[in-house]
Amino acid sequence: MQTTAVVVGAGHAGLAMSRRLTERSIDHVVLERGEVAHSWRTQRWPTLRLLTPNWQTRLPGYDYTGDDPDGFMPAAGVVATLTDYARLVGTPVRTGTTVHALRAGPQGFEVHANDDLLHARIVVLATGACTRPAIPAIADAIPPPVATLTPLAYRDPGQLPAGGVLVVGASATGVQLAAEIHQSGRPVTLAVGEHIRLPRRYRGRDIFWWLEATGLLAERYDQIDDLTRARHLPSPQLTGTPEAVTTDLNSLTALGIRLVGRLGRVVDGVAQFSGGLANVCALADLKMNRFLTRADQWATASGLDDDLPPPHRFAPTRVDPGTPLELDLTSGEITTVVWATGFRPDHSWLDIPVRDHGGRIRHDGGVVTGAPGLYVLGLPVLRTRASTYIHGATADTAALADHLHSHLSSRRR
Ligand SMILES: Cc1cc2nc3c(=O)[nH]c(=O)nc-3n(C[C@H](O)[C@H](O)[C@H](O)COP(=O)(O)OP(=O)(O)OC[C@H]3O[C@@H](n4cnc5c(N)ncnc54)[C@H](O)[C@@H]3O)c2cc1C
Questions:
Q1: Region 210-229: what's the mean pLDDT?
Q2: Which DSSP string corresponds to 350-388?
Q3: DSSP structural state of residue 311
Q4: Which of 6, 36, 39 to mutate to test the pocket of ligand 1 (most atoms within 8 A of CB)?
Q5: Structural element, H or E, at residue 297
Q6: What atom of ligand 1 comes closest to residue 35's alpha carbon?
Q7: Which ligand 1 atom is at minimum distance from the Cα of 392?
Q8: Angle between helix 12-23 and helix 75-89 axes, rounded to 10 deg
Q9: Which terminal CB of the chain, N or C, has fewer other CB atoms within 10 Å?
């Protein structure tokens, strides 16, 4: 089969790109190994809610119009939203179609999907940034009786054996799972590394309102000093709950969750934690306050001070001076380790030399380097800091659609 463009993946990014191609009358097909929103159906735990507010769930040709703009959508709501969106924009999607190889072809690309071969001049990779768990090498040293689990396989606390749980990682996923597992009655220890502390609400507004209003989310990839670092920052320590509560380390400590430092090594079954927990927390507090100062300055400059509650600051993170540095994983106290240590994309099926030694695609704002006609979407800070989130696909797909349109026109000339 011959088509102008193939989009791989029918998550929000692939669907948004399809809408852009339709706008430009570029014939295309979206290939999806499962169903629309497959990762939200199969790789997210049921109680997960977006940490971005509903009003921010925007895509090309779609704005949230429900009755809870300040609420946080559960995973099932994301599935429903994306399924409706695909219908609304008439996405030409072929479900149950796994792309297992992509090769350079005489006219562009050869896309090997199931038993079919498609020829396309343009290919857009929209297969997601969170397809695989990022698990540190020390995982191999966890002694066998202790069960290990990743967030992609986690569904609910009932899945875990009885006993204590060590959650490794205190970003969005780690803090939510630590709170949920603790509520099930299991003692939880949370290993805390570098993290981004933010309050859920500040001066009467959601923190994402501030991140957008101050222009932080709009910062472009080619204007960020340390882009590699920006692309590898952990997710903000935030959860979306119906009550819009702040889930920070102080609130977890108040629940009875024990904090320890970053998990560094496991030697003879003994987990060793960094002694730098207080420093890591102080740094996160400092960076949070730096952003709140930026927010206050923006509010003043915008003449909004009279419309908003006054500026204030949050209590520093409390760290127990007696925080343990070791935990014997053979003692029976801990029966499960949950790796909330992040996610990574999977582009291992590309038969085109566009990945670096770490397996990451080399690209310039989504335009893949060294393979004209190949694009990638949905990666953190792809074109702006907003690219990390669903609504970022609106601007990203507009820019990449312009680029690929020019590419097609120049080839025609
Ligand atoms: C736990 C978690 C919480 C998040 N919370 C938020 C949030 O609150 N707000 C927010 O804005 N963002 C959030 N995100 C980030 C982001 O929105 C998601 O990662 C989003 O799913 C990425 O969308 P995508 O379309 O790029 O990829 P995905 O939604 O992962 O879609 C990729 C699609 O490609 C398909 N696919 C993959 N490989 C192939 C192949 N070889 N052939 C065919 N099909 C393939 C998959 O089946 C999948 O359907 C969260 C992510 C995670 C993991």
A1: 97
A2: B-SS-B-TTSPBPEETTEETT-TTEEE-S-TTSSBGGGG
A3: P
A4: 39
A5: helix 277-301
A6: 49
A7: 11
A8: 20
A9: C
